Amino acid sequence: MSKHFAGARIRTLRRTRNLTQQEMARRLSLSTSYLNQLENDQRPLTVTVLMALSRNFDIDPAFFSPDHDARTISELREAFPTVPDEQLADLAARYPEFVTEVLGLADRAPLLVDDSPYRLVRDFFYEHHNYIHELDVLGEELAGRLGDPQLRLTRLSTALDRDLGVVVRFRKITTGPRRIYHPENRELHLRTGLSEAQLCFELALQYGLSGHADLLTGLAAPLPTEEARGIAVLALAQYFAAAVVMPYQAMLTTAEEFRYDIDRLAAHFGTGFETTCHRLSTLNRPGTRGVPFFFVRTDRAGNISKRQSATGFHFSRAGGSCPLWVIHRAFETPGRVTRQVAGMPDGRHYLWIARTVRGQAHGFGQPRKEFAVGLGCDLDQAERLVYAQGLDLSPASATPIGPGCTSCPRERCPQRAFPHAGRRVVVDLDATLDFSYTTY
Description:
Keywords: DNA-binding, Transcription, Transcription regulation. This protein is of the alpha+beta class. It is built from 17 helices and eleven strands. β8 and β9 form a beta hairpin. The termini are far apart.
């Protein structure tokens, strides 16, 4: 087993807690000199010290993992495409505060990255490892009070009326939004044609918005803009609703029993494929974690409209995604799960599955929403999934993908559409190459 050095992480933790080396060493039952050696990467991080750090400072051990920096390295690569990965990795590990400042400057540079309120909210969930403990516990408690899932719809409607004075009117809308709340008379109108699980989700969403408004607003408060805070409040209410419809412990226990078979889980909880995938990506409660998933949703044009990552998969923040990624192949086989063992340029490997989902039909000749939904995990977690059956899980079998052409270092990729940003383009007038970025 290779030695792991985490000096920069330990030093960052100590400084954020305003501790001297002597004070931190005392809390960890270490000598000050030993802690100093750890911080200066003269000693590797041992399991004993890792557990002591986690226990004494209530921090996820993954904070000290090399994978913790994967997303940061990806963002540095986009900002500095000509700098070798090993130098970026060293920079991220040794100078995390400096890197945060550098990336902050890059974020403020015009046209370089997506600076929309949606990106701010995505980053908010990423920083929380895609798990919001207070809301997850409240949702699970409400589901417990509601009892049997077959009675949940009626009891949710009653709870809204009894607890919050909100009257539910079913089948009041025939087109348009699934849910419309009228605050002037405290009536909630629901659209016709929704499944029982969808109705429960909308009722639980309203329960969260009406019953836990202060908590939602408080959780969203750190976001820097009013638009981002508004989007975050809705996203957090949706998180709460998912925790009611698919309570944490029941979801995790069933997922492990079914080996994360999404169709079986969807049938068990009465939820759709996309909603089930999204919930699986949030099973990150300390002490009782599920498989750490990455979740993504895209359309045929490659526009990524949802993405969540509890760990280090590096979604590109500027530019498109890789055309060799299985999420794009899903459109070739509508309604069927497509699998892929994929390798990124940094040597990390993943198992990805993807499937198309379609929205409600709105009448003859009217287009329907259509997306591909993807769920991925690190390759060392793949054996826990039913989707690993019959696949060659060796890294040698992996399809080489990347974070998007402008950030990807794979120069000889047959699908490359644009040169790597920052690299000098050399034109050979004496040869016609397969790899060409010209018009014809």
